[in-house]
């Protein structure tokens, strides 16, 4: 009998619906081939949820996610909702669902498809035979979730603050995930922090080095985040697995994505202790190009591949998606963001069809 898998789908805003549709196409092709029935339940989150229900993360959405086997998400946000108070913005829905699912470990692999070498901003000699970095971003703590407040002072000035706060157990668990990943790769882990200035970073450093004693086979080094921002451009090959605080991870993963040619290429998997993973591309909702069928769905399709790998132990199917993407690139098809001379420019729908047809 076919295996049944329940996926909660949050298309979200902007280009979200277009890119998620392509991932579903590809999953359906996989389902046919691997005798698996993917059962999708579409739920509202972000701006779409605000418009329909008045809140970015309705309770029905949370319930549907908790009843699913995994969650697939497009992107959220847009200028339409930019003036709402912080806790009512579309992004609050995204942070809320990450928290509800307890997905503290956000895996963001930056892998360069060899076919896209010339789409990268780096010189070919810096990229060499490719690039394969895994950024592990802590996802439900730190600056994003610490106390934040805004007050009006007596002199009429506004004052606002956010707090970067972590406790030992939160750092321990993300450190273990990172060491485990490093162990399965090249046994190299870089801790990215700002321990020359921030107390929370000093705690991170202490805790991560303590956990390192359990992983003597993994080589650990530490680097300040400003230096990392520079080193990623200078010599990205020095990195293998990187682990870092929520905000630092947000920033350096966008940076790393450009090394692979486009922000549109990068997938992510968010995992916790529970069994429900959240899968989403690392980019935003790109409202400027929404609805024009020009978005790049590769990051979302690769996120679906990560879902198969991490949530459902379907490694062969995940490999197959990655090689389907590779074949389509080999044949010269490109979306606008990764377009190069001599290639064939195609839209979001079309590249989704092409990838699905390789399966
Ligand atoms: C990301 C995004 C989100 C984040 C935004 C949309 C809230 O930039 O997933 O990297 O900052 O986490
Ligand atoms: Mg980001």
TrEMBL record:
PANTHER family: 3-ISOPROPYLMALATE DEHYDROGENASE (PTHR42979). The lineage of its organism: Bacteria, Bacillati, Bacillota, Clostridia, Eubacteriales. Belongs to the isocitrate and isopropylmalate dehydrogenases family. LeuB type 1 subfamily. GO terms for cellular component: cytosol. Its cofactor is Mn(2+); Mg(2+). Substrate binds at residues 98, 108, 137, 226. Residues 6-355 form the Isopropylmalate dehydrogenase-like domain. It catalyses: (2R,3S)-3-isopropylmalate + NAD(+) = 4-methyl-2-oxopentanoate + CO2 + NADH. The record marks 144, 194 as: Important for catalysis. This is 3-isopropylmalate dehydrogenase. Catalyzes the oxidation of 3-carboxy-2-hydroxy-4-methylpentanoate (3-isopropylmalate) to 3-carboxy-4-methyl-2-oxopentanoate. The product decarboxylates to 4-methyl-2 oxopentanoate. Gene3D superfamilies: Isopropylmalate Dehydrogenase (3.40.718.10). Homodimer. GO terms for biological process: L-leucine biosynthetic process. It comes from Clostridium cylindrosporum DSM 605.
């Amino acid at each position: 009998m076919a295996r049944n898998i329940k996926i909660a789908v949050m298309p979200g805003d902007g280009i979200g619906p277009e890119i998620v549709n392509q991932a579903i196409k590809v999953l359906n092709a996989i389902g046919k081939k691997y005798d698996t029935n993917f059962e999708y339940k579409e739920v509202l989150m972000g701006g779409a949820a605000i418009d329909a229900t008045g809140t970015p993360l309705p309770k029905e959405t949370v319930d549907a996610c908790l009843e699913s086997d995994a969650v697939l998400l497009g992107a959220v946000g847009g200028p339409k909702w930019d003036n709402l108070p912080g806790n009512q913005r579309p992004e609050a829905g995204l942070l809320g669902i990450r928290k509800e699912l307890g997905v503290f470990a956000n895996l963001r692999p930056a892998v360069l498809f060899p076919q896209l070498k010339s789409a990268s901003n780096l010189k070919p000699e810096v990229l060499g035979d490719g690039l394969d970095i895994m950024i592990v971003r802590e996802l439900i703590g730190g600056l994003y979730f610490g106390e934040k407040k805004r007050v009006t002072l007596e002199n009429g000035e506004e004052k606002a603050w956010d707090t970067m706060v972590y406790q030992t157990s939160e750092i321990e668990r993300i450190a273990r995930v990172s060491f485990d990943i490093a162990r399965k790769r090249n046994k190299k882990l870089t801790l990215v922090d700002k321990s020359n200035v921030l107390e929370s970073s000093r705690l991170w450093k202490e805790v991560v080095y303590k956990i390192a004693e359990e992983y003597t086979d993994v080589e650990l080094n530490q680097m300040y985040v400003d230096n990392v921002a520079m080193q990623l451009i200078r010599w990205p090959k020095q990195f293998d697995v990187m682990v870092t605080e929520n905000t630092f991870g947000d920033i350096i993963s966008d940076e790393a994505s450009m090394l692979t040619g486009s922000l549109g290429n990068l997938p992510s998997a968010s995992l916790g202790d529970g069994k429900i993973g959240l899968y989403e591309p690392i980019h935003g909702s790109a409202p400027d190009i929404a609805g024009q069928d020009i978005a790049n769905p590769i990051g979302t399709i690769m996120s679906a591949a990560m879902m198969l790998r991490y949530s459902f132990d379907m490694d062969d199917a995940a490999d197959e998606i990655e090689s389907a993407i590779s074949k389509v690139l080999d044949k010269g098809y490109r979306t606008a963001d990764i377009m190069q001379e001599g290639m064939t420019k195609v839209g979001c729908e079309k590249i989704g069809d092409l990838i699905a047809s390789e399966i």
